[in-house]
Amino acid sequence: xxxxxxxxxxxxxxxxxxxxxxxxxxxxxxxxxxxxxxxxxxxxxxxxxxxxxxxxxxxxxxxxxxxxxxxxxxxxxxxxxxxxxxxxxxxxxxxxxxxxxxxxxxxxxxxxxxxxxxxxxxxxxxx
Length: 127
Known about the structure:
Strand order of the largest sheet: 1-4-7-2
Order of helices and strands: HEEEEEEEH
Distance between the termini: 79 Å
Helix content: 10-25%
Number of helices: 2
Radius of gyration: 20 Å
Largest sheet: 4 strands, antiparallel
Number of strands: 7
Keywords: Signal
Strand content: 35-45%
């Protein structure tokens, strides 16, 4: 009986540790974190749309989104629209949606993009 109780307590304690993870895109060499969002779903919320900020002055050549949802009871449907940079998390009507989430956006720039931006800023500042 004591072992069963210990297992139940351990499962309840691990609830915050268990997470489902979705990855979209490719984590290119040289990628940097450009946006990080975290939040919660209440019991009555079923859908969230999260607009990620991945804009640079130079063109972004690759985006990588990582979505982590902490809910040991049910798992949402998670999608990522790479054109609009929107992550959508949706629970079905009867699923328990109370959970926490983390969304990380990483992006890789065109080679030389940073140098072009710095040169343009210096010319406008000193020129």
